[in-house]
Amino acid sequence: MLSWVKMEVDGHTDILENNAVVSAQERVTPRYLTKYERARVLGARALQISLSAPPMISVPPGMDDPLKIAESELAQGKIPIVIRRYGSNLTMILSIVFSFSS
Predict the structure, then answer these.
(1) I want to staple 46 with a disulfide (CB 3.0 to 4.6 A). Which of 55, 67, 69, 92 is the partner?
(2) Which CATH homologous superfamily contains domain 4-99?
């Protein structure tokens, strides 16, 4: 089983995989979310918010749509969700969503 831990070092988010740190410069997968990953992340986060999960951003008055709040969180890079991708040799690569560009 793959164990991972998020690490924040000098403003850069690194992922600790099986006791080996993989920095943002050494990543093999693209740093952009695909449209399918983006839709899945926004849907999952909007569901969490609609079920009373606390937003990770300050929500302006009048913004009550969970999807709009999730989109704002993604734009600010504050969604606490991990993406699981697979490498070419079927190795699992876990990436934290706020380390991606949308």
Answers:
(1) 67
(2) RNA polymerase subunit, RPB6/omega (3.90.940.10)
